[in-house]
Structures are given as structure tokens and as C-alpha cells.
Automatic annotation (TrEMBL):
The keyword Magnesium does not apply. Keywords: Repeat. This is Cell wall-binding repeat protein. Cell wall-binding repeats lie at residues 78-97.
Length: 252
């Protein structure tokens, strides 16, 4: 979730120059759009505020200078995979939306959205979850039981998570693509505390988890979970196939 150091000066110069911004979508859940705003850097992160009162903004922001698109969640500029209006997008390490390129086993079209059940420019087929097909089957695919959490996270992207039973962790071999199954993950509604899902979680083998044991904060790998009793996460990020790529705000 960091902005590259070399990019920060250019980013500041482009976005804090007082020029107006265009928006692709309405403010989530309100139907109100904003014509302009400002970016502020706080620590290692960039935030977009739509008014002097630091009104929280969720949605897309377009640079008026180079036309690149950026996505903010609760005002914070995002990186990695994000889901919006039923489509999947990938944001580079500098926050800019990727387009017309491969990201792992997925191809992003001209509008930046992952191609679903389609053909890529180099004539490769994609599956119903966007993953490339290999021998007629998706390279990345969860079983019917595990895949249930995908719809839960798309409906409740801010769900809180708890990862328990660390001794039950195994490396699996998919259709030519290795991943890690972890038992178990529980997802809770942030406001009501209602249990939304309890079951297996599928991690990318190189997934990263923020970890804070009270005295220090660090980034750990999914395999490191074997040494921890349990971790509570503030937010879980997945790719279009449902594989967990990042867990933010993990606390023991």
C-alpha cells in the first residue's frame, strides 16, 4: 500500500497544482458527485478529500494532466485488486489503474476491467472468474465450498476477519498454480458483528498480512501464520478468483 518514492514528487506536482479533477463514478451510496478536491500525503499514503472538511470519498479520480485513473477507498488511494460495480481492476504501486496488460493470470482490457469469459488480444481464453484457462480449466479456481466468501467480501468489502487454527495450513496445487489453504477464516459485519462466513480461506502463496503483536508492526507471509495463535484483520483483499492477496490491520 505504498507510493513509490520516485513517484511522490511527480504525483504531488500533478495533483496538488490546483487543477480540477474528473470523476468516473458517484460517491458510493450517496449519489453525490464532486467536481474537484485535493490530495494530501499522510505518512506513506495519499488521501483524496472532496472538501476542506476532509469529507470521506470513495470512488475513481482521473488526472486532468495524463488521464490516468486512481481509486480511493474512504479517501485513501488504493493499490492492488479492487472490485467496483461487479468488475475487477488492478491498481499499480503508484496507484494508477493498469490497462491492456496481464496481471498474473488475468488480463485487463482497454477500460482496465479484467476480461471475463473472453479472449485476450493474444488469443488466450479467460474463464468465468477471469483467470486464464489451461487445458480447458481455470488456472485459479476455488471449490464450491470455499468460494462462498467471494460474494461475502464483494457485498461486505469492509468486513472484519479472524484467522484461527494456524496448525491447519496446507500448500495446494491447482491447475498449474500453487496456493495456500488456511483453516479457518471468519468474516464479521463491521457494524452489527454478525457472522457472515466461517470456513477455509485460499491465499496466494506470496500473500502478505499486516501483523501487530502490540509492540511492533510488520509484514508477514501466509506461512508465518503457523506460528501465531490467531490474527484479526481489518480488511481482506482478494483477486477476481477469490485468492487472498493482502490482509490489512492484522492484530494478534
Amino acid at each position: 500500500m505504498r507510493v513509490q518514492k520516485g513517484y511522490q514528487k511527480n504525483f504531488c506536482r500533478r495533483f496538488l497544482s490546483g487543477m480540477a479533477f474528473l470523476f468516473l463514478f458517484f460517491l458510493m451510496g450517496t449519489g453525490i458527485s464532486h467536481a474537484e478536491g485535493r490530495w494530501e500525503q499522510e505518512g506513506q499514503n495519499w488521501y483524496y478529500y472532496s472538501s476542506d472538511n476532509k469529507e470521506s470519498y470513495t470512488g475513481w479520480v482521473q488526472s486532468s494532466t495524463d488521464g490516468r485513473w486512481y481509486f480511493c477507498l474512504n479517501s485513501k488511494m488504493q493499490t492492488g485488486w479492487v472490485s467496483w460495480n461487479g468488475k475487477w481492476y488492478f491498481l499499480n504501486s503508484d496507484g494508477a489503474m493498469a490497462e491492456k496488460q496481464y496481471v498474473g493470470n488475468f488480463y485487463l482490457g482497454e477500460d482496465g476491467a479484467a476480461l471475463i469469459s473472453a479472449e485476450t488480444p493474444d488469443q488466450r481464453k479467460t474463464s468465468e472468474n477471469g483467470s486464464l484457462l489451461r487445458k480447458g480449466k481455470p488456472m485459479q479456481e476455488l471449490n464450491e465450498k470455499t468460494a462462498k466468501y467471494i460474494s461475502v467480501l464483494m457485498e461486505h468489502p469492509d468486513a472484519k476477519a479472524f484467522f484461527d487454527s494456524p496448525n491447519q495450513l496446507s500448500l495446494e496445487e491447482g491447475n498449474g498454480y500453487p496456493f495456500v489453504i488456511f483453516k479457518k477464516m471468519s468474516l464479521y459485519d463491521r457494524k452489527s458483528g454478525e457472522l457472515l462466513y466461517a470456513g477455509d480461506a485460499a491465499f496466494h502463496k506470496n500473500a502478505v498480512i499486516e501483523y501487530n503483536n502490540g509492540s511492533e508492526k510488520k509484514m508477514i507471509s501466509v506461512m508465518d501464520l503457523m506460528m501465531i495463535r490467531g490474527v484479526a484483520g481489518e480488511r481482506v483483499f482478494i483477486d477476481p478468483a477469490g485468492y487472498i492477496t493482502y490482509v490489512a490491520g492484522g492484530v494478534e
